[in-house]
Amino acid sequence: MMMIIYRMPESLRERLAKPYLYNSSLIFVQGPREYVAFSLRTLLYSSLDAVHVVGDYTCETFLHYIGVPRLCVIDGNIMRSPFNISHITRYFEYVFNCVNPRGSISMDCIKKLQDALSLYKSLVIAKGEEDLLSLALMMYLPAGYIVYGIPKKGVVVVDVSSTKSETINLFSQFSLAILTPSSL
Hints:
- With 184 residues, the protein is of the alpha/beta class.
- The chain has one domain.
- Helices cover 34% and strands 29% of the residues.
- It has helices at residues 13-17, 19-22, 33-44, 56-66, 86-89, 107-117, 133-140, 164-171, and strands at 3-7, 27-29, 51-54, 71-74, 77-78, 81-82, 94-100, 104-106, 122-128, 145-150, 154-159, 175-179.
């Protein structure tokens, strides 16, 4: 089975790892977990039906301190270490699985994200890596918020409506690739 992906160019790696330095419309929250959670609760609690969270640790923080967002995207790893997600899955009514190789955005995951976005309390579990799926969400969401963690730095809150043109610009730099079973 072949897989169609959009591969991130190496030139974007550093920029995407520090988006809060390049985009003044993003909200960057840093500090102890409880402080970050309180800040996120203050900012987003009344908008949970418009919040989309990417990352296992960030999703778990939301569930523990804030509430169930409209969508969480996880991969079963925190900082590349396996993470048991069984306690997370019970919060969601809909669970989707997809495959997303590191450093890319797969069409498989794009399709699952589109399916999940039409529902509430959805969970997308990416086999591979979920990090870049926040960018895919920014492409397909007409409005709302995306929240994702920057390991050992903090959490970024994106108001999708204010970052659409930058997202399209970033995504246009990705290259289309077809992976065969031998290259997976």
